[in-house]
Amino acid sequence: xxxxxxxxxxxxxxxxxxxxxxxxxxxxQGRDAGRAEIARASGLSTQTxxxxxxxxxxxxxxxxxxxxxxxxxxxxLVYHFNAKGAAVLGFxxxxxxxxxxxxxxxxxxxxxxxxxxxxTSPETVLAQMAQMAGAARETPDYPRILGAGLVIPGPFGxxxxxxxxxxxxxxxxxxxxxxxxxxxxxxxxxxxxxxTAAALAExxxxxxxxxxxxxxxxxxSGLGLGVIIQGHPLRGAFGNAGELGHVVIxxxxxxxxxxxxxxxxxxxxxxxxxxxxxxxxxLPADTRGTDATIARLLDxxxxxxxxxxDQAAKALSRAIGMLENLFDPQSIILGGxxxxxxxxxxxxxxxxxLGSVSRREGRSQPRVVRGTSGRLTAALGAAALVIHYxxxxxxxxxxxxxxxxxx
Amino acid sequence: xxxxxxxxxxxxxxxxxxxxxxxxxxxxQGRDAGRAEIARASGLSTQTxxxxxxxxxxxxxxxxxxxxxxxxxxxxLVYHFNAKGAAVLGFxxxxxxxxxxxxxxxxxxxxxxxxxxxxTSPETVLAQMAQMAGAARETPDYPRILGAGLVIPGPFGxxxxxxxxxxxxxxxxxxxxxxxxxxxxxxxxxxxxxxTAAALAExxxxxxxxxxxxxxxxxxSGLGLGVIIQGHPLRGAFGNAGELGHVVIxxxxxxxxxxxxxxxxxxxxxxxxxxxxxxxxxLPADTRGTDATIARLLDxxxxxxxxxxDQAAKALSRAIGMLENLFDPQSIILGGxxxxxxxxxxxxxxxxxLGSVSRREGRSQPRVVRGTSGRLTAALGAAALVIHYxxxxxxxxxxxxxxxxxx
DNA sequence: AGCCTTAACTCAAAACATTTGAATAAAGTA
DNA sequence: TACTTTATTCAAATGTTTTGAGTTAAGGCT
Lengths: 407, 407
Known about the structure:
The structure is a homodimer. Chain A has helices spanning 13-30, 35-42, 46-58, 122-138, 177-185, 194-205, 270-279, 290-299, 303-327, 340-348, 377-391; strands spanning 62-67, 77-81, 87-93, 97-104, 109-116, 145-152, 189-193, 214-219, 223-229, 232-233, 331-336, 368-370. By secondary structure, chain A is α/β, with parallel strands linked by helices. The first copy, chain A, has 3 domains: 13-84, Winged helix-like DNA-binding domain superfamily/Winged helix DNA-binding domain (Arc Repressor Mutant, subunit A), CATH 1.10.10; 85-199 and 378-401, ATPase, nucleotide binding domain (Nucleotidyltransferase, domain 5, 2-Layer Sandwich), CATH 3.30.420.40; 210-372, Nucleotidyltransferase, domain 5, CATH 3.30.420.40. In chain A, the strands form 3 sheets. A 5-stranded mixed beta sheet of chain A has the order 5-4-3-6-7, with helices on both faces. In chain A, a hairpin with a 2-residue loop joins strand 9 (223-229) and strand 10. In chain A, helix 1 (13-30) packs across helix 3 (46-58). The first copy, chain A, binds a DNA duplex through residues 10-14, 16-17, 20, 34-36, 44-48, 50-51, 67, 69-77.
């Protein structure tokens, strides 16, 4: 998370090599390819690519996958990104619970662990994380662990904006935490907020594969937004970009704890459906069984739920138009803690605004898609953070801010 | 303008040097500094910085400015960014006119030229540009010209979204134009839309100096938005990010040509004041003398104008809350073709929403500021584009997409 | 004053990574 | 079979940065 005053670092030969490594790995993450092809795509010489590939193969991050027949000349020896070549740790910290997932660098979960949190002070939680990580690492034959991703609820350093039910974690200063976590875990640590991490995961393994610019609407307790611009997460000056839930979508509408009237979150969020269903006696006040209830109501085409969807779709359509005009993404993805069926219905009922830069001839992507994320979204997103920084050539921020397994 | 499918380039020694050059120049653009200081800030060795400085001095881009007394040890020889060391060309193409400004790399205009356009086909206009540029270059003792910036009205590749009065220029495909312009001018060319270019200019020479993440609301014929994130312009997948004018801010409100109801542009734009004043008989229907009229009405504290400001401030406050929550900028800047007095009044009447990530303790920047731009904003922005790419280390896009004087 | 410490800077050699050019390998084509 | 095309490797050359040993210039201390 680079939210310090912008500082720019110089480059030397080693940094250049690390960059080129990531270029090659990133290319291979997208598709199998021979060395000559990678050289052409990257502008590097074939010799350089050869050298890098030899290293990557020695580290088991890529594997040769036979020769691919081609029109003429010597057929290239294609290489394959080896998803099982290394592992990463993903942690999701919430006010009441800590989730860890270990995935390979293809994003496939290997181990999942969930623990309740009694205290949320950074010291306690980091100690607990270190313990979980230690246990996971003791498994024999474990592939190399490249780093840990850490997802905490945002926004950072702002009072009175958190979603009802969730609270910003006290003491979790995003500037200090990564260094502390690195010390505690003995691994490079990348920190971000849930929606951004989930967006990266969706881009690597989910519905946004192959896209480089997209926005991900993340249904958590509130409504978050992760924006990826040309492969890079958008964070803003203080790490709080994408606070979509508190954008006013219905001026003078429903009041929100934050002080605004008509926040999007009041119309489009898990809490919003729950409130709607509770008010109509369709869900117990403690919200237990929300997903099952929604599934049932969807099945019987329930009117109350349908009403909610109509309202939500209206607000969401407006929000999507706004996002399209502001970010000009290739596509917008909806995912997170809402049943797939409900998301699909929501998308089907959208009436997207006419005045949008996304209404262009010859679109190859739909304007709105449902994500493929499940319950683990945020923790997987944390893991995806690490893979992202392993595989994606960095911007030009100061090295202190973005440590990485390949430095 | 890099709006092709995202492709990532490898780096070699020369690219590394170009990068480091920009790091050094960028640092010096912000403040005078000695070589040791630059080395510390950039992470480069003093030797490398020394070498680069020698080159930059030989090219007259930096100048030594005496020794700065320090606590102990040999006092550093501070270097100064030499604003007069080179020049850049800025072109603004509008459907009816072509403006060229030649500035030094400090952004000070040297020559300004304005011509009406009979035809807007790229060929005709590029020829005209080449002629203007040629004339400007014949002046003797002219500093080296680093490149040309080109600003054209957006959005690109979208029908029915342009501001009333302005039209997207037919045939001006942002993917093809830079190459054509480079051929015509014999200079590296950078192209972008007006609001983004103006935002860069504001960051380099205006109210956003020292900021790295900010949003610039540009009053042209409509309302544009330029977003700078950690020093880099945000463009989106197709170059159309920041189409703020057509964001719906008043659902069900005033109809817009684009098909939406309640576009921000209907409430907050030069056209909107003009319409308001014409309807009240305060301005002739041909809008001549708009600025003088507004100045006069401001002076006498006119009620009709005040009413407009109230309405506009209401819509704008909402829009600003939205931008804050989505982009999390250090500050938001208002500028462009609206009299300073009116902008100041607009800002004074804002009631910024409570639910915003920008409401943080210990802000050092105001949330909203008036820009320092004048009539030439867009053309100066075009010039700023070139300076930006000369001085700011690049992201990792493919080199084909961003030619530059230092390649 | 003279000597020490600190900091900026320079010079020449070494290190690092990429590129270049020639050579080899493997396939289709005439 | 000879030729063309494409992929790959080897060894030498290139470009840039870093390193380590000085040199210069200032303040502080005795």
